[in-house]
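dumping this here before i forget
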Amino acid sequence: MNRLLMQLTALGTAAGMALLCTHLHAAMRCAGGLIDEGDSMDQVLQQCGEPDQRETTPQYIEADGFPAEGSVNEEDWVYGPDNGMYRYLHFIDGKLVRLRSQRN
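structure:
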């Protein structure tokens, strides 16, 4: 009975950790509030202001003047350093898709 209880506890803990890990995602606090993946560039600008660095990669335009199929606009923003912490934001077609922090 004791062994069964330990196995069930271990299984429950593992399942809980797996569930928790699938729901983790990046968020960043700015002076104006919290930003999160899925936010628009305008929302991020309202909450955090202009980034310290900004790099744009536009859509690929075909010779006929139209965007190539599957081509997207991408932007990479950097905030910081703020107490040694840099925050890197990646946008695709105006939506925040990746957010990471790194202490340099």
